Please model this.
Amino acid sequence: MTGREALEKLLEGNRRYLEGGGPRSTGQTDRENLVDSQSPMAAILCCSDSRVPPEHVFDAGLGEIFIVRVAGHVVGTSVLGSLEYAVDHLNVSLILVLGHESCGAVKAALAGGEVHGSIKGLVERIKPSLIDIDTGPDISREIMEAAVTENIRYTQHQLQDISDSIRKKVEAGDLMIAGAVYSLRSGEVNTV
Ligand SMILES: [Zn+2]
Model:
């Protein structure tokens, strides 16, 4: 399956989700078939937000998607290691970076207020993606939408910039890195 075909399959799953389908039911046979190996169609790097569960959003069953979740889908060593495993050992042809409407991590980075503990390090990883966003006194809905999109694109670039193995696969045409945004209100996923 090519990266584009995998992306189309995910978007088909999202259409089923929009039509009211729940997460696909799984039986003992599905579990048993997956005991010895896995062959997911795609890797998804997604925000941790409880309202954006990829298995639901893409109507995906066991073994179909390899998911890495971290607030604001920021890139760090553990995230890269997990994705390199999916690319190099599970041979996924697609990494989808999935952001979402009203992402709290992006909002915190935009607002620029005081954050404490390890949240600070997380927010700092988002800030470079927002350098071209002019916030003004209030963060409007349009500015938030632009910021979410910029953060998705930034993450897409970072995956290739930092990871040699991911970049080589992309350059060889064996891997696609796509970006998409999830609407909390409609449930729709749109590529960016
Ligand atoms: Zn979020």
